[in-house]
Design goal:
By secondary structure, this protein is of the alpha/beta class. Helices cover 34% and strands 19% of the residues. It has 11 helices and 12 strands. The chain has helices spanning 46-58, 77-85, 101-111, 125-132, 137-149, 170-179, 199-204, 208-218, 250-254, 281-285, 290-302; strands at 16-20, 63-67, 91-96, 115-119, 155-161, 183-188, 221-224, 232-236, 239-244, 258-261, 266-268, 278-279. Strands 7-8-9-6-5-4-3-2-1-10-11-12 form a 12-stranded mixed beta sheet. Helix 1 runs parallel beside helix 2 (77-85) and helix 2 (77-85) runs parallel beside helix 3 (101-111). It is globular and about 55 Å long. The chain starts with 15 loop residues before the first strand and ends in an 8-residue tail after the last helix. The chain binds S-adenosylmethionine. Residues 25, 31-35, 67-68, 70, 95-97, 119, 158, 160, 187, 189-190, 192, 201 line the site of S-adenosylmethionine (SAM).
Length: 310
């Protein structure tokens, strides 16, 4: 890991920045951890997001991901992507529920978006409605297909596995993914410190470890992603699956190269904590210099601690 510009005190390079650009969402998933963010109605302007990305680039970040809330709910989403793209990052991506993607896939691609992850936990209309509390399955599927049509690549589906809800849909989702040349990411249901109670995640937690063993047996090839939380990729019958297992996973933390920004503009050093945030946009608004902003980034990086340890 010696060629990276900025590393934390655990020798983890800072490669990607995940910016939550809103807390608002048009669906209401049963399990949602809101990207680990505390509730807030404050948002950053597109110029502030641009400034943050500019500083991030200077400290060595090469990948930007926009998330939320639902990022496509922002009227200025295309403008935000266009501004970030002018900074020439290696990779710009969005995580979305896909419900507005039919409208936005093409303008986002033209604005400089490279790839997209779409959260889709079920292909069954009733289960989809139960999970999201909305009737948007058709819109989400159309959005995913439009994303592949306009050349966003790769398109990934994020599927959170829940015991007794959608655990039996992995094969169907994998078939759909293969059919459209999409990578399927299976995500372990996480607890969240923001949920009023964690009863849901405890009750519906599905043991992804067991599933990984089966996938490993079926796979024609298995690869581990560099610098990406030690995620495994399984290649099965011409399709591709990834497994994301953040809970109690020391390897997830050891290989974490990601810094986060909250919707109200604070640096968030860890997905799983909210007690070590660093103010950033406040200082952009007060006219801080680029050097001062860079130092705030370094302060955030210095606060990074692995959440799960042996
Ligand atoms: N609205 C966008 C979407 O639906 O993708 C972006 C925000 S959403 C919080 C980002 C990702 O977090 C989604 O892929 C979602 O499935 C995942 N997620 C949310 N709560 C989770 C939980 N409790 N456990 C695991 N993943 C979760």
């Amino acid at each position: 890991m010696s060629n990276f510009k900025t590393k934390d005190k655990y020798d983890r390079p800072i490669i990607s920045l995940r910016i939550s650009i809103t807390n608002r969402c048009n669906v209401n998933c049963l399990y949602c951890h809101h990207d680990g963010m505390l509730p807030s109605s404050k948002e950053m302007t597109s110029d502030e997001i641009y400034t943050i990305c500019k500083i991030a680039k200077e400290i060595g970040v090469s990948k930007i991901r926009l998330s939320g809330g639902e990022p496509l709910i922002r009227q200025d989403i295309v403008d935000i992507v266009k501004k970030i793209a002018s900074l020439n990052f290696k990779d710009i991506s969005i995580t979305t529920n896909g419900t507005l993607l039919s409208k936005y896939a093409k303008p986002l691609k033209e604005a400089g978006l490279d790839r997209i992850n779409v959260s889709l936990d079920s292909l069954n209309p009733e289960t989809y409605k139960k999970i999201t509390q909305k009737d948007y399955l058709k819109n989400a599927k159309e959005g995913i297909i439009e994303a592949t049509n306009v050349g966003l690549y790769p398109v990934k589906i994020n599927m959170v596995l829940m015991k007794g809800i959608n655990e039996n849909e992995v094969q169907d989702m994998f078939r759909f993914s293969k059919e459209h040349n999409i990578i399927l990411q299976l995500i372990e249901l996480m607890k969240s410190e923001n949920c009023e109670d964690n009863q849901f995640s405890e009750e519906y937690h599905y043991d992804v470890g067991k599933l990984e063993k089966t996938l490993a047996e079926q796979a024609d090839d298995v690869k581990t992603r560099d610098f990406m939380q030690d995620r495994k990729k399984y290649f099965i019958n011409g399709g591709e699956l990834e497994v994301v297992r953040p809970m109690d996973n020391t390897r997830f933390c050891e290989n974490c190269t990601r810094l986060r920004i909250t919707p109200e503009g604070k640096i968030k050093p860890c997905l799983l904590r909210n007690d070590n945030l660093v103010e950033l946009v406040k200082y952009i608004r007060e006219g801080s210099t680029e050097e001062e902003l860079k130092n705030l980034f370094l302060e955030g990086i210095n606060k990074r601690e692995p959440f799960n340890t042996d």
